[in-house]
Amino acid sequence: METELDFTIEEATIQEIQHAFAEGKLTARQLVDFYLHQIESLNPVLRGVIEVNPDAQQLADQSDREKERSKNGSGRLVELGELHGIPVLLKDTIGTNDKLNTTAGSYALLGSKVSRDAGVVARLRKAGAIVLGKTSLSEWYKFRSLSGVPNGWCARAGQGVNPYLSSGTPCGSSSGSAISVAANMACVALGSETHSSIICPSDHNSVVGIKPTVGLTSRAGVIPMTPRWDTIGPICRTVLDAVYVLDVIAGLDQSDEATSEAAKFIPEGGYKQFLNENGLKGKRLGIVRHPFVDKMQDTAEFAAFELHLYTFRQRGAEVIDDLKIDHIDTILEPNHSGEISIMMADFKTSIKVYLKELEDSPVRSLADVIAFNESNAELEKLTEYDQQTFVAAERTDGLGEHEKAILEKLDNLSKNGFEKLMKDHKLDAMVTPGSRACPVFAIGGYPAITVPAGYENDGMPFGICFGGLKGCEPKLIEISYAFEKATKARRPPLINI
Description:
Elements: H1 14-22, H2 28-46, E1 49-52, H3 56-70, E2 87-91, H4 119-126, E3 130-135, E4 153-154, E5 158-159, H5 175-182, E6 188-193, H6 199-204, E7 208-211, E8 231-236, H7 239-249, H8 258-262, E9 284-287, H9 300-314, E10 318-320, H10 328-331, H11 334-337, H12 339-357, H13 366-375, H14 388-394, H15 401-424, E11 429-433, H16 438-444, E12 448-455, E13 461-467, H17 473-487
Parallel strand pairs: 2-3, 2-6, 9-10, 9-11
Antiparallel strand pairs: 1-3, 4-5, 6-8, 7-8, 7-12, 11-13, 12-13
């Protein structure tokens, strides 16, 4: 679709949109209206958006007035935030102190009232972004029932649909954010990840997702899953856009003590300086084939991955192939590693704190949520999608000796596995196909970036994932940006409505 002023919005980057604003080819109101039209047209099928901000158009008009006031004599924009006039969709776990709900996709929290914007939302608003609405997700991060609730399903929105292949999974839990960005219902969205929830849906919906080092972005005002591993990150169509957003949302927040420790990782001058087309040159990239690659034979993804290794070498990277992570099979099985046990104990404790801090809420504890679901079984499809994980979590009693032993085990698995691999081989990043390596990054709080890498014969997307040690976002940005520029693998979906 083109505006009356001849600017094509589909697939436009933040930078291109800002240039169009500056040149008078586009207004924030036109941009918001375009996305609202996209949502109205596509969302009944894709179900990527739960709820639209009723004030979005008013906020866009305000943004346009601010732009007019900010122009100097030569017509250039001055003193406006980096995301000024850019509509942003938020995962429906990220609190907004406005007319939007924050419900984790569940009717149990419908009508609850947060006391303030989430830390990342406050940063977005300060940068001039327009909150467009909330995206769907795997309800309660799929933690209501790990085996029962499908990826991308929640009671409030229904089943999210992959825009590339309706029969393919959108993955989760940040499914709606990835679906919406892929389908041009927004150019920017935020997701959250505890265990694969940004990387997997971004991979499956052919968009870019950044899982930041835990604590690099504030979790204050976000419905918690497991605070020791929770992180908030951007989901966009390009690395450039994702880095623009990361620059805005990263930083210290007195309401989240984890940001105090992670703030030391933020480089002076921010992250945009690492958008380097030659960023692969001189990088050492580690390839762990078992079990990430060796089960992919005879797929388009396998062939593409091998081709991408060639691209790395051609662009000046040193590829160290066929590496191994000690105890990788244990790490990748969250029940065996004990990761699920920690999630259950932490979730029960942290969700109670979150619910009690709400100004108004129909539920105040996990037990209340369980009871609500039982009383509203038809609404929440409880007979089909049960809540066995919730019930198991309710039986936990915080971090006892058993859980502390698991945490020590997980710490040792990280130090003696992934960290040892990275340090022994002096790697800048580990490179893996798809989202299979997410548990490695989850238990250590490590960062990762996924970039579109190709499509299967049926059209199902796949990505390539770059992961590293805590605070290595600058290296990952250089690598992923250079890879994206070299391959230009992403294509927009062909949606048949």
